[in-house]
Backbone:
């Protein structure tokens, strides 16, 4: 529910704007208020997330009014709400028309440009863009952004949908860099990964296929495993194995039969726990294991002998660190990924949409979003949960 | 006990030698048989180790007859006996005058040259040397070696004792390389290590002191902890902490007070288990953790967040791999270490001597050696166990 104070603030700002700026009818068409998913304290998302309505700042000569079309619910977002993620969104009051400090949720998202300031030349209404940085707050209806906040999507909606664009910047870019930064893999070389059904995992399979790499893809045992094997194989997975198959000591021979004399030089890990230990065991001498997630909520455990006698190296990968240090390189890779999506080389991630409709009450907006969070928490069989605004 | 067959073989070889080669009285002075600690099968050292007597091959123009003066009992030696070490000594029959295939134990050792072949110019009787390669079999009285097997000790016994030389090539070289190969440490920089009371740990403390590095040294809690703190401090340890002190969450602040704004870029690990996890937590962003041993017989367990958000890198270090690839570099470093020992910069490791005397029976020789192995297994409070031959 929107508080009386918030309503008052919105009305007051609207009045001020009309009186001082003399708004055009065009600008008034888009209500300059935002409805956003926020949190006052860190905690379990279903407990602490709230809907908050606040007045956006006036459009200035070099700012841009945007509408969010699609915003994923990513692990990093959830960890931010829980307070266990190093990049923390600021808790704000006046900027969000709130007496109590609150923080905006969401990092990845696709926007449509509604209106631009006089000095903004690179964007025009109708253009679409993705967020250039993290911690912008993407679980909301609208925002005022700057040029620096946005990366334009260079293709029309007929070639790349908002849903496709919404998941283009984080997962495929992570897979792209991990496959290239640590080990030089040549066509015919193998890599192995846990959580192969994740967004990053699926992107790694497909980029691997495009680059001539072979992949061993570990997924959790499940009822519809043959369906998943077929699904990942259709993306280009060379082999799909369950964590329990991998845990069997005899399975090493099976993998040896697959790879022959070709060493497995790279492992990608987003789980932790036994599966991670087991893919490390499959690495060749001098191999590298890259951890980019911990979905099993267990640490990475490596036998001492793998370090000493097999010369295994373990690293981590955090896209945000790289993105902040290399914004131009990121833009280049994201554009390459857009092109792969457009041409159908990189297939859509399976998604569940949670739709915010124009006529929904605040309670309905919040309930819709929380249903998406609940689906995320329950695992959703590797499907990406995305907030969509009609 | 020497078997009848073995005795026969020794006698037969001795006769052959006298008849065919016409040996000098000088050569006959040194009995060309060797008593060695061997094993027929892998297993617990106290169960499987045996004393075996065999005839050495005749001295040829380019071989060298050597007597072992001092041979340590190192973790790698024990692991070889157990069969869990990747470098395995060969199981041999005729070369060791044995009908059953047997393997020689021991890798590190100091020898005195007794006699050299005509074409051997670099060594003369009375010279001392250490083993240049692993898997030579150093737990024995004598051997026939080649020039390639030996690195001469360039100082007389008055400057470097056999006991000092016996531990010069493995532990200090390991510490030397780990402090230099992974991170560029400058004077004033900190490193942290588990098992600081080990041979490598003590060498790292002292080399660190020589190079202007500061060290946080983790040891197991024990009764005489203040004695050990004083001992390691006298070597140059900046700080000595117990594993239980380190495990206390509040201890992070203590370490922060010590190091100030100086990042801990390097961790050295020879234990595994909790201590290893806890030193990894103290590393600065981008830090490196090097595992060279697993004395706690537990794996290396690292929280996922340390990889992703702190960009920690984990590697292993195995001196044998490096030595085999870089024999010249190793000789240079070992000579530098000999020089540090000679000048007193690198202090002796505390040792327990297990002495083989000339008049001992085979049973006494074996019992003496096994007593050393038992002391090793019991931990010996960080003291090195060394077989010495009078």
Residues:
């Amino acid at each position: 529910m929107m508080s009386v104070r918030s309503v008052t603030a919105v009305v007051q700002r609207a009045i001020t704007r009309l009186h001082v700026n003399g708004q055009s009818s065009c600008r008034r068409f888009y209500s300059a208020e935002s409805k956003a998913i926020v949190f006052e304290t860190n905690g379990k998302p279903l407990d602490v997330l709230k809907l908050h309505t606040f007045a956006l700042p006036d459009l200035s000569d070099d700012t841009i009014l945007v509408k969010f079309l699609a915003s994923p619910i990513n692990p990093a977002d959830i960890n931010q709400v829980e307070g266990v993620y190093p990049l923390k969104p600021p808790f704000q009051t006046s900027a969000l028309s709130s007496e109590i400090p609150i923080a905006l949720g969401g990092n990845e998202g696709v926007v449509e440009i509604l209106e631009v300031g006089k000095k903004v030349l690179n964007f025009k209404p109708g253009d679409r863009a993705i967020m250039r940085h993290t911690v912008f707050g993407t679980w909301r209806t609208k925002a005022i952004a700057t040029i620096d906040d946005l990366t334009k999507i260079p293709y029309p909606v007929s070639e790349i949908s908002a849903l496709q664009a919404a998941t283009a910047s984080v997962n495929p870019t992570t897979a792209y860099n991990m496959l290239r930064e640590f080990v030089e893999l040549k066509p015919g070389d193998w890599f192995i990964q846990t959580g192969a059904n994740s967004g990053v995992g699926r992107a790694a399979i497909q980029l691997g296929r495009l680059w001539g790499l072979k992949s061993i893809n570990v997924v959790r045992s499940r009822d519809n495993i043959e369906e998943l094997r077929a699904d990942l194989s259709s993306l280009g997975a060379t082999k799909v194995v369950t964590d329990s198959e991998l845990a069997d000591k005899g399975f090493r021979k099976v993998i040896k039969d697959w790879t022959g004399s070709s060493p497995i030089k790279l492992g990608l890990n987003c789980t932790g726990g036994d599966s991670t230990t087991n893919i490390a065991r499959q690495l060749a001498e001098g191999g590298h294991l890259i951890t980019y997630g911990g979905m099993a909520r267990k640490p990475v455990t490596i036998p001492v002998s793998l370090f000493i006698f097999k010369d295994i190296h373990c690293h981590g990968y955090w896209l945000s660190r790289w993105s902040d240090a290399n914004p131009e390189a990121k833009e280049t890779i994201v554009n390459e990924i857009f092109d792969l999506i457009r041409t159908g080389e990189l297939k859509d991630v399976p998604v569940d949409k949670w739709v915010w409709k124009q006529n929904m009450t605040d309670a309905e907006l919040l309930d819709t979003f929380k249903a998406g969070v609940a689906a995320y928490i329950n695992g959703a069989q590797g499907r990406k949960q995305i907030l969509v605004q009609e």
Q: What stands out?
A: Chain A touches chain B through 29 residues (CB under 8 Å).
